[in-house]
Queue: 3 jobs
Job 1
Amino acid sequence: GNSVTQMEGPVTLSEEAFLTINCTYTATGYPSLFWYVQYPGEGLQLLLKATKADDKGSNKGFEATYRKETTSFHLEKGSVQVSDSAVYFCALRDYKLSFGAGTTVTVRA
Amino acid sequence: DAMVIQNPRYQVTQFGKPVTLSCSQTLNHNVMYWYQQKSSQAPKLLFHYYDKDFNNEADTPDNFQSRRPNTSFCFLDIRSPGLGDAAMYLCATSSGQGLNEQFFGPGTRLTVL
C-alpha cells in the first residue's frame, strides 16, 4: 500500500537557519503530494502541494519539488523564523490522505 | 469566514461512557472526514462521508460510528471509549474527492478517565 516516510525529529534551529525535512514515499500510480503544518493547539493547514512529477510547490518561503525518480518530496526553507515552529507532515493522496509521522521543528530566537 | 468548526475543543469522558464529538462547516463541501491523531503520531483516517454515502476504513474499530444529518454537520460517536481512544480527533472537509484540498478543523482533544 501507499506510505510516507519522513525525517524524524525533533529539529531545533536558530532563526535564519536553513531547514530541510526529508520525505520519501511509496505509491502505486501517480499520487499528489502535500506538506501540512500543525501549529500548537491547532488543526492541520495545507502548506504546499504538487500534483505531478517535477512540480514545485511553494508557500511562505517553503518549497518542495516532486521527484519521481527518487520518490521524494523534501521540504526546504532558506531562512526560518520563530513563527515557523510547528509540526510538519508530509502526505500523499490517491483516494485518501496518507500522512508521514510528522517532524517537530523548533526555531529559537 | 468560511471554516470548519469542532466542538468542544476539549472533551473528557469516563471509560465506557458514550461520547459524541461534533463538526460543522460553512464551506458547503460535500465530503467530510474524521481522523484520529494520537500523541506524536500522524493523523489516521477513520471514515468519511461523500454526500450521504458513508465510507468506513477497513481497520476502524466498530466502537466508532458517525452520523451526517445534513451537509453542514457531521458527528463522531464513540460507543464505549477505552483508554486507548484518548487522542485528538480532527474533522476535515473537501469539495469532491480525488485531488481536492482538505480543510481541517482545530480538533477535539479527547481524554478518557
Job 2
Amino acid sequence: GDSVTQMEGPVTLSEEAFLTINCTYTATGYPSLFWYVQYPGEGLQLLLKATKADDKGSNKGFEATYRKETTSFHLEKGSVQVSDSAVYFCALSHGSGNTGKLIFGQGTTLQVKP
Amino acid sequence: KAGVTQTPRYLIKTRGQQVTLSCSPISGHRSVSWYQQTPGQGLQFLFEYFSETQRNKGNFPGRFSGRQFSNSRSEMNVSTLELGDSALYLCASSLQGTTDTQYFGPGTRLTVL
C-alpha cells in the first residue's frame, strides 16, 4: 500500500542554518504531495504542495520539489528561524478510489536555537 | 473566510463511556475527513464524508463512527471508550475530497481515564 517515510528527528539547528528534511514515498500512479507543519498545541497547517512530477511547491521560504524518479519530496529552507520550530509532516493523497485520505509520514521535529 | 472549527477542544472521559466530537468545515467545503493522532501511531485516517455519505474508511473498529449533515458539518462518535482512544482527533475539510488540499482544525484532545 501507499506509504510515506520521513527522516528521523529531532533535528536541531542554529538560527540561519540550512534545513533539509527528507521525505520519500511509495505509491502507484501520481499522488499529490504535501508538507504540513504543526506548532505546539495546534492542528496541522498546510505549508506547501505539489501535484505533479517536477512541480516545486514553495511558501514562507520553504520549498520542495516533486521528484518522480527518486519518489522524493524533500523539504528545504535556506535560513531557519527560531519561529520555525515545529513538527513537520510529509503526506500524500491518492484520490482515485481513496477519497479524502492523506497518508502521513511519522513527522520530524525541528528545534531551532538562537 | 473562517477556518475549520472543532468542539470541544478538550474532553476527559472514563473507560466505557461514549463521546461525540463536532467539526464545522470551511464554508463551501463538502468533504470532511477525520484523523487520530497519537505519539505511537502518528496520524491515522479514520473516515471521510462527502454530501452526507461516508466514502472512505480507515482501519478502526466499529466503535468509531461518524456522520455528516446537510450543511456539511460532521460529528464523530466513539463508543465504549478504551484507554488507547486517548488522542488528538483532527478534522479536515476540502472542496471535493479527492486530491484537494485539506485544511485542518485545531483538534479535540480526548483523554480517557
Job 3
Amino acid sequence: DTEVTQTPKHLVMGMTNKKSLKCEQHMGHRAMYWYKQKAKKPPELMFVYSYEKLSINESVPSRFSPECPNSSLLNLHLHALQPEDSALYLCASSQDGTIGIQYFGAGTRLSVL
Amino acid sequence: AQRVTQPEKLLSVFKGAPVELKCNYSYSGSPELFWYVQYSRQRLQLLLRHISRESIKGFTADLNKGETSFHLKKPFAQEEDSAMYYCALRGGSYIPTFGRGTSLIVHP
C-alpha cells in the first residue's frame, strides 16, 4: 500500500464553523506533512511532523491546528477560517524527515464561505 | 538558502515535438533534485529523482552542477503528458522547496 488517504475530498464551511481534515498512511512512514495549494501554484508547506512530534510550523495562523495522534494519522483542525483560506490541502508522508521521497494524498478541496 | 526557478509558466507544444521543461536551482551544497507531476484532478506524484537516473514515461532529467540545472526532457511529446510539472530541491533542511511550476499543454 503506497497510498496516502485524505478525507473528506471536499469541504464547504462557514467562517464560524469548526471542522477537521484527516490524513492516513500505512507505509510505516515517520514524517508527515500538511501543504496548502492554490490553483496553478506550487504546494506551500504548513507543518511537518517527525516521529509524531511537530518539527516545523511555517508561521501558520493559529486557526489551523495540526494533530498527530499516532504514526499513521495526521489531522488538521480548522476554526474561524477566512475566505482566503479556500484552497486544496495536501497531506504527504515520507520515510522520515531526512530520507525518502514524499507521497502525496489527493487532497481536500476546502471552500470557506 | 535554497531556491528553485522554473522560468516558463506555460509551455505549449504539438504532439510528437520535443519537450524541455527548464529548472535551475540555487543551493551551496549537494542538493537532491526531483520532478513532480500533477495531472488534472489527480494527486501530485513523483516523476523523477536525479539519484535514480532513470527514464519514466519517456522523460529524463540530468543534473548539471556546473549550470545548476535539472531540465526535464522528452523527445516526442504525447497528449497525455499535458499536466503541471514542478521541480523540487531538497537540501540541508530536508524539506523540499518547490518551483512555481510549468504547465505543459500538448496539442493534437
